[in-house]
């Protein structure tokens, strides 16, 4: 009976999924919000869920745009939790978010022409590389030991990080938070927790930039996006509170576990595509 409601043409215009798919997408958004808040990379859960759950005739920009509205809401809530507990550095944050906004705007414009089927293999390679890099450095990010001087040396590096990862977020998106975290840890010497605080604000900026591009073109499934956003916010607040409470070691462990699970899933998706 409930399912038949979603089959009505008037409803399908603004919510093009049935009840089972809707439940799956909301659950995925909640989990993605938690993961994104702790270590980043929630898009690796949420975006594949959208690819699976939405009808095949929905174009790639609508998939990406709906993903962005949910991610933006969750990242905003997680950023608020982090800012209450973790000190951020303006000399790093300002060039980081400036580069992130510019990179994401360019990437989002390019993504409108990107075939949907190329997303998973590209993300898979990137996630494997990040996982190997982190696993081989057991003390990476456990201590907050910033590198470079508190001036131009840190600022230009932060700007490049923002530009490169921002472009990636705009063009694809999944794993952006994780890539921000690991590059800030590896290049700037931050601890995982401190890097996560800066990464959330940078990721918030890239999500906003991409969201503007998709919104201008009307490429967002608004009703579905708002439902997923509510779940993402809930997961984001819970995840950020756990990360702040448990510190760098906890964040690093979750980071590696999430990468391992996602590598397995994405690898299976790629293999299944050839079967």
Domains, number: 1
Please state the structural category: mainly alpha
Provide a count of the helices.
11
Helix content: over 70%
Beta fraction: under 5%
Radius of gyration: 18 Å
Dominant shape = globular
* Total beta strands: 0
Spell the H/E element sequence.
HHHHHHHHHHH
Task: Tell me the span between the first and last alpha carbons.
Answer: 36 Å
Largest sheet: none
Mean pLDDT: 82
Stretches where pLDDT is under 50 for at least 5 consecutive residues are: 1-11
Please tell me about this protein's structure.
The protein has helices at residues 2-5, 9-12, 19-38, 43-53, 60-85, 90-111, 119-135, 152-171, 176-188, 192-216, 222-274. It is an all-alpha fold. The protein has one domain. Helix 3 (19-38) packs antiparallel against helix 4 (43-53) and helix 4 (43-53) runs antiparallel to helix 5. The model is unreliable at 1-11 (pLDDT under 50).
Write the layout of secondary structure elements.
Blueprint: H1 2-5, H2 9-12, H3 19-38, H4 43-53, H5 60-85, H6 90-111, H7 119-135, H8 152-171, H9 176-188, H10 192-216, H11 222-274
Relevant terms:
single chain, 275 residues, mainly alpha, 0% strand, globular, disordered N terminus
Write a brief caption for the model:
The protein has 275 residues and is mostly helical. The chain contains 11 helices and no strands.
